[in-house]
Design a protein that fits this description.
By secondary structure, this protein is α/β, with parallel strands linked by helices. It contains 13 helices and 11 strands. α5 packs antiparallel against α6.
């Protein structure tokens, strides 16, 4: 699988049938006067990973099939056995479960959302999933939507402590220039991966060269950018392809062995697990300042 296809697969895992951002007004807000839902279904991995930590098992009736996928999910082994698994957004099957709330995200396909609304299902949309502050707000909003605000707040408090400790340890540290690479894609401005790079005490080369969103950069452009470090996901064959590339294998960072592979489940985390991703990447970039294990 090519780097670009691997990245696309991971983004699909984040939200089933994802392809487009939606209007915030198109889904029921967390401040809805409706009673707290007793039966909650999730159609995006970011929600799966939050809900398994804040809801009693009997209230979580459906998650994505990706929630059980080691190397993609931070919720492996934590999803209730009785919860249905959805490899794709099957509206008919979802309606049969009679959920009181279905959690989607800003990446959920507009046609899928429309079908869910036409089926009379109540929706909550996670949004703002491009920044660290956005992840924090999305977790709290989801907690309010499902009536588990206290549990969500505890996740956010842990998230805040981790990010604050990373920031403290990186004060005054040099900022290496890091290029995320998923042939031919990179992460530019307004991306979760870009926010992760900056959180870990580095400069996002994708933003630096003018890329916005997850977009192609091209090998020649990446080579001219001359990053200090290349960041990869741990998809099969990604590093081998980089090392075999006729141009990118000649990058200074590659020749000097400054290639960082971040666990994919952290690289694509769009919730409180982004703090763990920040810590792990900060350790890889600044091992003298950030230990592997948190104190």
């Amino acid at each position: 699988m090519s780097h670009g296809r691997a990245l696309a697969a991971a983004l699909t895992a984040i939200s089933l049938l994802s392809s487009s951002a939606l209007s915030p007004s198109s889904a029921v807000s967390a401040s809805s006067p409706l009673p707290f839902p007793a039966r909650v279904a999730s159609l995006n991995l970011a929600a799966d990973e939050v809900l398994v930590e804040i809801l009693p098992p009997e209230r979580l009736v459906a998650v994505t099939a990706f929630a059980d996928e080691r190397g993609t999910s931070n919720a492996v082994g934590r999803v209730p056995p009785g919860a249905a698994r959805f490899p794709r957004a099957d509206v008919e099957r979802l309606v049969a479960l009679s959920p009181d709330l279905v959690v989607i995200s800003q990446y959920t396909d507009a046609d899928v959302q429309r079908q869910l609304e036409q089926a009379g299902l109540r929706l909550h949309r996670m949004q703002g999933l491009e920044t660290l502050a956005g992840f924090r707000a999305a977790v709290l909003d989801l907690g309010r939507a499902v009536g588990a605000e206290g549990a969500a707040l505890r996740l956010v408090e842990r998230y805040d402590r981790t990010l604050a400790e990373v920031s403290r340890r990186l004060q005054g540290a040099p900022r290496p220039r890091v290029l995320y690479w998923s042939n031919p894609m990179t992460a530019g401005a307004n991306t979760a991966i870009g926010a992760l790079i900056e959180c870990a005490g580095a400069v996002n080369v994708g933003r630096e060269i003018g890329v916005s969103g997850i977009a192609p950069a091209g090998a020649e452009r990446a080579f001219v950018a001359d990053p200090d470090v290349v960041l990869l996901g741990q998809w099969r064959g990604v590093k081998a392809a980089l090392l075999a590339h006729p141009l990118l294998s000649r990058l200074r960072a590659v020749r000097e062995g400054k290639v960082v592979e971040l666990r994919t489940e952290l690289l694509v985390a769009l919730n409180h697990h982004a703090a763990d991703a920040c810590w792990e990447l900060a350790h890889a970039l600044h091992p003298q300042r950030v230990p592997r294990e948190r104190p």
